[in-house]
Amino acid sequence: MKIKVFNMQSSRGNNVPNQFEIEIYNNKGDTTCRYFQSYQSIIVMKKKGETYLDKDTWNYSITTSKYRGFYLGESTAETKAKIKSGEYKLKNLN
To answer: What is this structure's pTM?
Structure first.
């Protein structure tokens, strides 16, 4: 297993402190799981074609919401709609 951690990038291409993308690879080099972490909390987990959001922290602050939106490529309203439809599942990720 291999783990890679990257700082999120701002719209200007700068590293954003405390906002991370984490990728986990199996022994064949295939990505098995991806995470978005804000400060010390996992906010999003993508695994086996499913997207999970932490039930307590997915919309914790303006900063968390901003970078969660960058990570998912959507607005908070779109994220809320996907939670409501069941496309995204809320789960305890921390």
So the answer is: 0.91
Q: Helix H segments across the chain? A: 62-72, 76-85
| Integer CA distances (angstroms), 35 to 11, 12, in order | 20, 22
pLDDT tens track for 17-76 = 999 999 999 888 777 899 999 999 999 999 999 999 999 999 999 999 999 999 999 999
Tokens 């978005």 belong to 36
DSSP string spanning 5-19? EEEEE-TTSPEEEEE
Q: Where are the domains of the chain?
A: 2-91
Q: How many CB atoms lie within 10 A of CB 57?
A: 21
